[in-house]
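Re: [ENG-882] Designed sequences occasionally contain unexpected residues at chain ends

Forwarding the minimal case from QA. C-alpha cells:
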C-alpha cells in the first residue's frame, strides 16, 4: 500500500464496527491474499495454521519465526488493503521485537492467543496482560496504532468447569482490553445468548470464528459482533478441492 502504516492501522481499526462486522476469509500466501481482495473484502488476515501448513510445518509455533514473518510480508506486498497477522502467542519474541517485525513485514494488526501453543494450557491472565500491554507500548513508541486482537481460549481449552467458562472469558477479555487490546476473540464461543453476554459485558469489538454451527453473519451482526474470521477454513477447503482434482487426474480424467 502507498499509505503510511499509521493510516493503514487506522483504516483497519475503523472496519471493526459492532453490528456491521468485518469479514475475514483468512489467507496464507500472496495468491490467496489477492483472491480475498479481488472478491471485494476490505482487509486481509492470515491464519497461523494455514500459513504454517503451507510452509510445511504444524500449527502451534512449530514454524521458524523468520519464515512466518516472510510469509506475512509476501501477503502484505501483494495487496493494497490493511493486513493483520495471526501470530499465535508471539513466537517467544519480546513485545518490542514482535511489533518491529510485524511493521517491517507490512502488517498493521495481529492476533495474540492466551494459551500455550505447544502445551495447550491456558496462560496466566496476568502474564498475558503484560504481553498485551508491552505490545501496545511498543506500538505507541513506533507511532503506529496497530490493531491488537486478543484471543481468549477458555472455550477452546475447556479450562475448569463448563459453568464457569463464560464468566472466565468475560473476565479475561476485560483485562486484555484494559491492557491495550482493541478487540477480543473468544474462539469457539458460538451460542447466541453467550455471544450477546460477551458483547454487552466488554463493550468493545468482539471477533467470532465462523464454522459449522455458528450463527449466520446477519445473526452475528444483530448480536453486535464486529469481526468474523474463518481461520484455516478457506485453506482446508482449497486443499480438499485440490485433492479431488488430483484424484480425478490420477483416475485418468481431465483436470477440472
Amino acid at each position: 500500500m502507498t499509505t503510511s502504516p499509521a493510516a493503514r492501522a487506522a483504516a483497519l481499526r475503523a472496519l471493526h464496527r459492532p453490528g456491521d462486522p468485518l469479514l475475514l476469509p483468512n489467507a496464507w500466501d500472496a495468491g490467496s491474499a489477492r483472491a480475498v481482495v479481488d472478491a471485494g473484502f476490505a482487509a486481509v488476515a492470515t491464519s497461523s495454521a494455514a500459513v504454517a501448513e503451507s510452509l510445511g510445518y504444524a500449527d502451534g509455533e512449530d514454524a521458524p519465526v523468520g519464515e512466518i514473518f516472510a510469509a506475512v510480508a509476501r501477503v502484505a506486498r501483494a495487496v493494497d488493503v490493511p493486513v493483520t497477522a495471526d501470530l499465535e502467542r508471539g513466537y517467544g519474541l519480546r513485545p518490542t521485537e514482535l511489533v518491529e517485525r510485524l511493521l517491517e513485514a507490512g502488517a498493521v494488526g495481529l492476533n495474540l492467543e492466551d494459551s500455550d501453543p505447544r502445551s495447550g494450557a491456558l496462560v496466566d491472565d496476568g502474564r498475558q496482560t503484560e504481553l498485551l500491554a508491552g505490545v501496545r507500548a511498543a506500538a505507541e513508541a513506533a507511532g503506529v496504532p496497530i490493531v491488537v486482537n486478543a484471543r481468549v481460549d477458555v472455550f477452546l481449552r475447556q479450562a475448569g468447569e463448563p459453568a464457569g467458562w463464560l464468566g472466565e472469558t468475560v473476565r479475561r477479555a476485560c483485562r486484555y482490553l484494559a491492557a491495550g487490546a482493541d478487540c477480543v476473540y473468544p474462539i469457539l464461543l458460538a451460542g447466541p445468548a453467550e455471544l450477546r453476554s460477551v458483547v454487552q459485558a466488554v463493550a468493545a469489538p468482539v471477533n467470532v470464528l465462523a464454522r459449522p454451527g455458528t450463527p449466520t453473519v446477519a445473526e452475528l451482526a444483530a448480536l453486535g459482533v464486529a469481526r468474523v474470521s474463518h481461520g484455516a477454513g478457506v485453506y482446508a477447503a482449497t486443499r480438499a478441492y485440490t485433492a479431488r482434482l488430483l484424484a480425478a487426474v490420477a483416475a485418468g480424467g481431465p483436470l477440472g
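QA comment: On inspection the terminal residues look reasonable. The chain has a mean pLDDT of 96. Proposing we downgrade this to a documentation issue.
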